[in-house]
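Dear colleague,

Following up on yesterday's call, I've attached the two folding results inline so they're easy to grep. Please treat them as preliminary; we haven't cross-checked anything against experimental data yet. The first protein's sequence and structure tokens come first.
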Amino acid sequence: MKNCTADELFAQHDSVLAHSDEYSDTIVIKYAKGLKVDYKEDGVHVSICNPDPNAKMKKTEEIVISNPSSRFICTTALQLGNFEALGLEDKIVGMNSLKNLFSPKMKEQIKNGSTVKIGKEGNFDLESVVASKPDYIFVSASKHGGFEVLKDCNIPLISHHGYKETDPLGQAEWIKLIGILTGETRRANAVFADIETKYLKLKDEVAAQKSDKLPTVISGRQIRDGWYFVGGKSYMAQIFSDAGTEYIMKDNSESGGVTEDFESVYVKGLNADFWQTDGAHSGEYTLNDLAAEDERYATMEAFKNNQVVFCNLSETPYRELGGVQPHYILADFVKAFHPELLPTYEPKYYKIIK
């Protein structure tokens, strides 16, 4: 495997889970800033905090896990994706009402009643929550106030801060928390090792190109009151760098999304080689669809050169699995920016649109 090219490595379809027994049952955190794990006599001690460097609240949650749990409620698509990546969807007994649900197993579980819909933030069905008898409920730090009512159910809440990690591998590493909670630590180590190996292999191959002039990339587009783009210290900005590009907004200090007035971003991105953006669109999204949103888009170099990389959130499971599959997102960008490195790879989320 060490001698494989990244293209060959991504083409392998051998089941990672089939070899999970070969991995350690001890969890070691390597990249995630919001997780700490300590093994003690009374169980596994896990410290959870918000890893966002700009977070105003740095409250740390401490949980002790002495026995595996098998019943969980997820309140975001990304939390679901953590279970999905490990093949543990059967342990989800409750799920918020997602607009787009892609997991075939979750669809079947909701259909047969083994997983119940609990409503949405601010309008949870507490009777369904209690009736599903969860051991834990995962909540999100990005929401404010909507989860307070769940405390009345007297069920332990766990904040899932994976999406706040700025290191792509750090975000994916939160699957190890699921491994600890469910007792499937070997499985979590196996899956993460596969993600890490593929990500780093491709990153190293890109770096080995040693180009004097990197292609440039701009992100986002007009959303309501301004041009929304990913911050220069964000998860996505790191993937841009690892994919061998120079991000136009790299000097921005934000770790999340940023909104600035249209003109200021437009001027900076006008001559960028590539343009990354996403959105929910029914069916195929084209350059014509993009230009219809604002005629100025058609004047951008990336648009004129057919180098717009788009992820259709309505047609791909990005919200569920993107956070735990940074190796595929990286590969999607490398396929667009440096196609010669991945000649046979088929993009999973982000694709050049025409």
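Below is the second protein, in the same order (sequence, then structure):
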Amino acid sequence: MSVEEYVEDEYIDEIEEELPVEEEGVHYKYVVPVKFHNTNKSYSFGTDEPIYETGDLVVVETIQGIELGECQAPALSTEIYRSRLPLRPIIRKASSQDRQDYEDNIEQAKRAKEICQEEIHDLGLGMNLLSASYLLDRSKVLFIYTAEQRVDFRELLKRLGSRLHCRIELRQIGDRDQAKIVGGIGLCGMECCCSRFKNHFDNISINMAKTQQLALNIEKLSGMCGKLMCCLKYENEAYEELIQGLPKIGAHIEYDGELYRVSSINVISGEAHIENSETFQTITVQDLREKAEVRKGVSIKKHVEGPRKAINRVVKPEIKQEETMDYTKVEQPKETKSTQPNNRERQSYKQKPNNNNRRERKQPQSQQSSGNVTVRSFKAKKKEG
């Protein structure tokens, strides 16, 4: 399989650098568009003989080497159709031997792919091999693969070189390039755009889905490659023109002297829905653009259709007026002396005895000072005669 499409699209700078200095000054009288196998894009090649017609198989020189391609148009004069890049030459028309070699290369490429797959499995490399292709003269084989991380394939090159006996080239591509090579059916029921007609991959962002008012579901917005679908780019400019000057969904506006909230906008049908806590109405997009004024810092409740749902609330029992007491009229009891110790005495009990208290304990009992305790001594009565 030829990979000329990827080479010309992704490595144009390399083409300009690798061209010889002598070839930059070569000017051809005619230019012929040539298409390669399993590609959708034609590439221009130069010639001095207008002998090539549409459908002719030709042998051309590319940046990879000698390739076989098909003419898409007759030879055109370079005075009318000028090329900005230097043209590579058409070597000759394909002979029967060239066609036979091309068919044999396809079968040999299948065998080379099996060999490469075996070596990848033996080495335990994290590579997903996609395709293998030989040049027309079988001087080089190109392997295309995908990988999540950078792969060290130096040992793989040694093993493949010893078994295939030709130059080996390994090229890593991205997810979109993989989908372009493999192909498939999209959500629309048609063949994927990348494998059918697209030659360049556009930058796709999630803002395009927001502009087109699509549901932000990544699974539905992603293609086979796992990236956002390329078709989001097709109608993006038209939607940007249609929504220009319109308020965003959820914005608060003033329309006909009342405040509303924009609930939805359909630029295709030309209708917009606005609502507040009392009414809900449909207006045209043109009236929304010209008559409505955006009001910031205003909060509007949504309109609820139908009867409102009952809300169960827990109601506290009310106290009857008769049972209430006026605490201001209640006589306070008179102050009485309490036998319990006061706060100061409690604190004194809780405090730890200091060194002075320890010394007092060593003194005799008669000399101790008792605070609230009275000590009395009783003497024995004398017996009367």
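For the second protein, one point worth flagging: Confidence is low (pLDDT under 50) at residues 1-24, 307-332, 356-360, 362-371.

Best wishes,
A.L.
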